[in-house]
Amino acid sequence: MSEVAVLGVGMHPWGKWGRPFTEYGVVAARAALDDAGIDWSQVDLVVGGETVRNGYAGYVAGATFAQALGWNGARVATSYAACATGAQALDTARARILAGLSEVALVVGADTTPKGFLAPNAGERWDDPDWLRFRLLGMTNPAYFALYARRRMDLYGATPEDFAAVKVKNARHGLENPNARYRKEVSVSDVLESAVVSDPLHLLDICATSDGAAAVVVASTEFARKLGLADPVRINAVSTVTPTFPNTILDMPSLSTDASTGGAPELTFKESIAHAAYEEAGIGPEDVGLAEVYDLSTALELDWMEDLALCGRGEAESLLRAGETTIGGRIPVNPSGGLACFGEAVPAQALAQVCEVTWQLRGQATGRQVEGARVGITANQGLFGHGSSVLLSR
Amino acid sequence: MSLGPAVEGWFTTGPEPRLLGSRCTTCATTYFPPVASSDGAAFCRNPTCDGDEFEVAELSRRGTVWSYTDAQYQPPAPYVARTDPYEPFALAAVELDEGLTVLGQVADGYGVKDLHVGAEVELVVEPLDGELLIWRWKPVTELGEEADQ
Fold it and tell me: How close B117 comes to chain A (CA, Å)?
């Protein structure tokens, strides 16, 4: 048996609140514990997601949250995996539970972010690729997103209107989401009339950076049964695979790819992230009822649909245009509103995806419910060969 | 005023400049940027190779555009703007015969309108700022094509 049960989920709303990250984390953690119907004293493992921004890496995040909730003697762990941080933290909790070493775990990620472009660490860092890409090339995160967007245009005939349509859809999905930062209808012309940041992407194609927190309480299926939960949402897979050499698709923050001589692997890195989740779960893309994917840009959502094998390569635009990725369509993508409505709070974001899928599978996603969904999948990718996909079912 | 390369050993600066990669002497895999500083150890990143010796590999001067964009807002530090007010510049990721895709700014005077996926570009070296030189990708215009535009 390789499943663990999701007992509870909770979030602190995304925004620019200007408060310490610990505060957001505790709000999310308490919400998740309430949702689980268990007491903090029952938690025997705390796993925190951290970012470098939160000083001493979030004062080593798991311990900071544990102290803020009141030391209870639980085991502690902390993860950093860029955008996949929350999923890696969740995987740590899952592994200890499946090994029988822990019974109930609280997983928390929280962030407080600066305005504007995410920038590298300060100082002269000539051996740091994340610093060099800014110093030598002025290569920002949106510039990478724009390279992928442009390829969709030149290879598959995507248009700026398609990208804008992703934003329009996600803005509508997030209207009723109480945790979303942006809850306002957006039109195609709003997107196309916003300033171009990196051609072909406009300001409204690119996600903001936000403050926010998400927490998940997971436990053994046996513990869930003892609580009287007959049919909890289950985590069937957590994929945190690294790339396979040679990684021939340009990834942020690299200046180059590996050489493809000798042959590229069968799956790209992003495809392999999802593939590993499907393999681990024994569930295929045809069974997926909804997906929460990392729309750092509108165009990236289209890439993810193909990376998750929800459609073939180059087919995402036709699904989008047919309304199949809208709630009510065949495979709703980002019913939460996605990063378009949230903005990115890095160590919390992968957990926020898990929260949304949990609410969807329980039928509790008021105002944005995907009817009858039994299986949901998440996906994200971050710096330095990190990425994750979580597959949940009920 | 004599400008030096932004990073020593990453590219040559003559009239026909080239990027300098590292080629593993065991498995012949080529890397760019070069794998090691002059004083450090280096290890081949091919998982089936335990090589730790490399030779300098001059990379192809021409390649094809994998994708391209521009920076219409001034990037944050440590980027150093060359002009005040800031002037946008273009960027391209270029596939080389060696099988690598290498990012670079696009040569002065060219923008996204001069590029498409699959277009041929050539390596040039231009000033990055007042002190340093950097490699850039310059669109290759076939004879007669310019007159048509």
Answer: 6
